[in-house]
């Protein structure tokens, strides 16, 4: 390229820490991974000194990566793993069984990709009104829980942080669980990742409309933020597609004499699940021209520079998002309910 592009001013959109880490060996970042039932769980702790390098706040981040939740077996496995991780996270934050919880469902219920938080809030088992009644003894195994859907500032005219602060002042919860839809910088993570963190959350940050952050520092009570990426921008889709083209041609080149492939339709060969060697720089240039000589970062910069000035860096979500959001909100609300209320058991 004849000139350098400062990617920082283009605000590459991802709310996931796992996509923001420049290097796992970066000072101040600790990582660990485990795999259960084909579900990958990544544990990442970042210190104050590592905040700038990954543009995320100090804290613990647990990232759960899974397959399509429309499959009933995947759904059950995800619930089991997610529930275990949420229990562990409660222990890490020293949340007691008697602590009062406020569940906050962020987002716009009128926009399906952004409706995850409100849908989860609708399914939370609420008990605060029972605890507030004189002479009523709530059964053991249930804690004091309330929930709120503050909507978005474009519909209410009130900053989400101000709404939540007002409710905290009046109801005095001991901790918050905040659920929101996120943005990802990878197609493969859309609707297939759950992030849990104690570092708080910025409503609207995924779509470039960041409001006041909701965290222990701003709210005065511990915050557990749970999010799922439901959208990606056009830059991500185009750059990932270029990467997939390279992988497809690399697979085809390495398997040109593979007789078993001749019996399959081209659309039935998932080259992403195969062991694919990257093309040489010469092959990339022959395939993609000058674009083939660029690094992944430079390709994203170029696409952003092309799409942004003409207003085509759109936020995109899968066509089946209605069904998937219903599934994800059910999984998340089920797990939150069972974690908050120990007397509730999973139903097979």
Number of β-strand runs: 9
Strand content: 15-25%
Mean pLDDT: 86
Question: What percent of the residues sit in helical stretches (DSSP H or I)?
Answer: 25-40%
Give the SSE order as H and E letters.
EEHEHEHHEHHEEHEHHHEH
Number of helical regions = 11
Shape: elongated
Global Rg: 22 Å
Largest sheet: 9 strands, mixed
Q: Specify the structural class.
A: alpha/beta
End-to-end Cα distance, whole Å, is 57 Å
- Uncertain segments: 5-10
What does this structure look like?
- This protein has 348 residues and is an alpha/beta fold.
- The chain is built from 11 helices and 9 strands.
- The protein has helices at 51-54, 72-92, 116-122, 128-132, 153-156, 160-171, 216-219, 234-254, 281-288, 296-307, 321-340, and strands at 29-36, 39-46, 59-65, 101-106, 145-151, 175-183, 193-197, 223-233, 315-316.
- Strands 1, 2, 3, 4, 5, 6, 7, 8 and 9 form a 9-stranded mixed sheet that branches.
- The longest helix has 21 residues, at 72-92.
- The chain starts with 28 loop residues before the first strand and ends in an 8-residue tail after the last helix.
List the helices and strands and how they pair.
Layout: E1 29-36, E2 39-46, H1 51-54, E3 59-65, H2 72-92, E4 101-106, H3 116-122, H4 128-132, E5 145-151, H5 153-156, H6 160-171, E6 175-183, E7 193-197, H7 216-219, E8 223-233, H8 234-254, H9 281-288, H10 296-307, E9 315-316, H11 321-340
Parallel strand pairs: 4-5, 4-6, 6-8
Antiparallel strand pairs: 1-2, 2-3, 3-7, 7-8, 8-9
Helix pairs in contact: 2-11, 3-11, 8-10
């Amino acid at each position: 390229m004849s000139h350098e592009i400062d990617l920082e001013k283009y605000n590459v959109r991802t709310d996931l820490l796992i996509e923001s880490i420049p290097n796992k060996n970066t000072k101040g970042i600790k990582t660990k991974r485990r795999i259960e039932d084909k579900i990958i769980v990544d544990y990442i702790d970042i210190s104050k000194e590592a905040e700038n390098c990954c543009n995320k706040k100090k804290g613990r981040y647990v990232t759960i990566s899974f397959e399509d939740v429309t499959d009933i077996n995947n759904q059950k496995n995800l619930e089991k793993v997610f529930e275990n991780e949420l229990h562990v996270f409660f222990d890490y934050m020293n949340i007691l069984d008697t602590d009062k919880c406020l569940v906050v469902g962020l987002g716009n219920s009128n926009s399906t990709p952004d409706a995850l938080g409100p849908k989860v809030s609708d399914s939370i088992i609420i008990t605060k009104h029972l605890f507030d009644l004189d002479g009523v003894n709530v059964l053991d195994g249930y804690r004091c829980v309330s929930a709120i859907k503050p909507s978005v500032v474009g519909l209410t005219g009130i900053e989400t942080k101000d709404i939540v602060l007002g409710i905290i002042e009046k109801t005095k919860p001991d901790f918050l669980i905040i659920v929101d839809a996120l943005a990802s910088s990878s197609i493969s993570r859309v609707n297939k990742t759950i992030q849990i963190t104690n570092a708080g959350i910025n409503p609207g940050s995924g779509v470039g409309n960041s409001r006041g952050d909701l965290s222990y520092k701003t709210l005065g009570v511990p915050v557990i933020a749970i999010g799922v990426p439901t959208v990606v921008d056009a830059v991500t889709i185009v750059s990932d597609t270029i990467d997939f083209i390279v992988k497809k041609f690399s697979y085809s080149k390495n398997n040109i004499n593979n007789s078993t492939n001749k019996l399959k339709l081209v659309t039935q060969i998932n080259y992403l699940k195969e062991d694919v060697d990257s093309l040489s720089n010469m092959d990339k240039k022959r395939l993609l021209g000058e674009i083939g000589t660029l690094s992944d970062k430079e390709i994203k910069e170029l696409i952003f520079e092309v799409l942004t000035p003409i207003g085509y860096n759109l936020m995109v979500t899968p066509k089946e998002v209605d069904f998937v959001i219903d599934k994800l909100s059910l999984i998340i609300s089920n797990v939150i309910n069972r974690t908050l209320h120990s007397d509730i058991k999973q139903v097979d």
